[in-house]
Task: structure prediction
Amino acid sequence: MKSFQPTHKLIAPAGEEIPVLLVPEILTVSYLVITKIEYEEGTAPFYRWHPLQGVTYNGIKLEGLKVLPLESAFGKKAELTDYESNRNHPGDLVMVL
Result:
């Protein structure tokens, strides 16, 4: 099995940062949010992330949790911004590269 290579970080409201791997779900715009423990144990991920819905757990939106990209391979940092500032949808997030 390959080693865990996080692509993003899950940010909790208290500031805790958890490295995660985003894996696209087939036929949706959602991503599975996989932690190192879930990856190594082969267990199902708890969280999902969608650019418009944010982070969810079993379909319930979790306010305050954010998914931010790690440094990109090209040396510039990708950021997530409030979708509200771009489209007037409160609380939504969009990835800006």
Notes: The helical segments are 36-41, 84-87.
